[in-house]
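User: Could you walk me through two proteins back to back? I'd like the raw sequence and the structure tokens for each, with a short line separating them so I can tell where one ends and the next begins.

Assistant: Of course. Protein one, sequence then structure:
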Amino acid sequence: MIKNQFILYFTFLITGISQAEIIETHRSGKWTDSETWINGVKPGPSDSVLINIGDTVFINSSNTQCFYLKNMGILFFKSQTNFLKCKNAFFDDSEITGSYSGTFETENLYIEGGTIFGQFNLKVSNKLLIKDSLSLKSRIGSKKINDFINLGTLLNPANENIILFGNLQNTGTILLNEGTLTFMNPSVINGYLSVSKLKMNNSLVVMDTLIVSEELGGEGELINKGVIKLGMMNTNFKIDSLNLSYPNNELHLIRNGHQKIPKISKNRAEKIVLSGKTKYTLNTVNYIRTLDIKSKSSIELKKPLSLVSLYCNDTSHLSVSDDFTFDNTQNFYFGKKSTLEINNNQSFNHSIQVGNLSIPNSGKLTLNSDDTLKIGGNFTGEGVVNGNPVIEYNGSNRQKIKKIDYGTMIYNN
């Protein structure tokens, strides 16, 4: 729906250009030279301008203006004081660059074909829409955009930084590489976005999927209504807070190195997924609806926490100690290669299936006598199991049997 609306919008603008008198290039040359233009007519502020294929127009004035601009050739700034302004611009298999960082300002910019941005300053006060492909080839010059709609591909081999003052809508591909994407105002991200570095100076709402691999900084609150995946070091997480309270949102921590679960506003999270091959630290969270531990991830829960659902997959490791208990946990899953390590007093009022179970000296596990403790891996440690439950070994491979007094033991291997 959004895609169709913007295509219709820019089609209307293009139609407006075709119905007006258009001043076209005759050959390459300076914007201010009459020889550059057909019939020697130089464009003015109210004119529509067409840069033809193969032509290069040199912007050599500090006050160059037109109303509509369609570029199918090359626009080139020769000085940092060069300035070009129009209401609506259309770039089709074209280029805009310079030997110095001149400035191009427009309300709306529409990209077709394979367009190249080189060295210049860009300011788009309303909307930038990429239909096909845009490649950023220089880090010199600023790129400031209000709303950004990408239906095609944005490439950034120069690692250019982009500053947004509005929202971002992405249904295509954005490859920023090491470039930083900065949101200056309260903004919304729709669609899939994966970046190395993201900065925000106000609130930012994620509606679909956001991946930040190296650095997340700035001020304000990151509000998750979709899926956020974070891979940065602890020192590179520098925003005020992360809001995970909205229904069905997910936070994925994916760094393969020690990572703290970041500061969470309202101390409440719907779903946290740990999938990096590392040890995680949980600080100020009082409520997690779902904690999903994957791969070789490990975490120790020490503080009181209302945890509704727990999933330990793959070869993950969960250690519990101090004041944490499973009293509020309603749903459990322990894969047969996962490990549950109990370093305090824990009790279950139902049967439970675990993978590897470790109960050191400081630990104690209590179940009812009519319940069954099912162990899919090894059972180790010097701690005790109280309540005289049935203990069933049901692994698919050879298991290590703990030497204790069994009321009833079942070896179903």
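----
Protein two, same layout:
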Amino acid sequence: MLLSLFFLIRVFQGKDKKYIFYVLSSVSFALALLSKELAVVFPLLIPVIYFAFIAKTINKEGVKHIILLLIPFVLLAAGYILLRLHILPFTGAYSFHQDIGGRILVFLKTLLIYWGIILFHHDLRSRFDQSFSVSSPELIVSLVVLGLIVFYSIRSLRKERKLFFGFSWFFIFLIPASGILIPLFSVIAERWLRMPSIGLFYLASLGFTKLAHESNLGVVFKRIILVILIAYLCFLSVVTIKTNSLWKNSVSYFGYLLKFYPDEPRVHNNLAIGYEKQGKKEEAFGEYKKTVELAPDFINAHANLGGYYAERGEFDLATEEYRKTISINKSFTYAYQALAQINVTRGHYDEATQYLEQLRDLLPNSWKPYSLLGQVYFLKKDYYNSQVNLERALSLNPDDPNLNKLLAVVKARLSSP
């Protein structure tokens, strides 16, 4: 995305080969979209940069010029959003207000918390609570501060446009984390401030630079400002080091979050995943159980419980968990394969075949279901159907040496008297 911005600045500067830079900027933006979803807001930044640093005045010609310049960027962003919504829709165990008005109020309340995090690095953790009131002090203060920012940003367009740029950068890159349009894992997470905070730090650097060069300020006063700045940076460093002890791994972080959200299923599920990574299976099992107690439709937790039971040889319990995942989402393909594997282990080949046939119907263009069906039919000594499925698997994945070897064995069995 920064590379796209670099090429775009070259276009604004009117350098030679600006059309080549324009194409390079568009291509870089397309690649940025494939790298990070946050890049989708980049088209909003283009007019901000143009009117903050390039255009001497804001007029109709400038607006027309920037609209034409935006066309490929807007089309790329719109195309990406449509593909994202249809191919990888935002689904899962999200908790957010369905009413857009409620989501806007929640975002306005979180603004005050975000500003506090940037200034003081206080309590760097995800937040899931979404309680709000129109008359709450946090919301009122946030609205007042936001109103002042908007007022002075617009006013700065007449004279000092850098203020407009800094605040615009902050809000543009905070849009994807607002939760207004896209469901999010949590209401607040400090990692979402990494890009937005650049705008505020840019303004802070301008302020300190102006103070340093202000001739009316005495040397003593400037030194006091410098001491305060150093003390502030030391404070932020201490807070950051302290926070790192909580963020060192998933177990320490989500264990810390449980103090605030003991009944939040997503926290329990992520803590369970952390325990699994550390090889603490019993602790992981307990957290997965707690997750499904709090959220019976938490599909991944049921699947992980199924895997836990299967590993212990408790196949009836494993089957029950996997069947729950299918009742929640009939397209959850992993469950069909897992159920087939359980039945193969138990010698129930007919049941395994039924699950794999359902998997094949869900994934008709994947070689995997046909390969597994071919293997199960081979175990059933149904060599004809084994050959049919293995040949279909090979047509979809012709370079798999294991499929070729098994198919050769099957053909040998068919040709033997």
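Residues 61 and 78 are 25 Å apart (CA to CA).

Let me know if you want the two compared in more detail.
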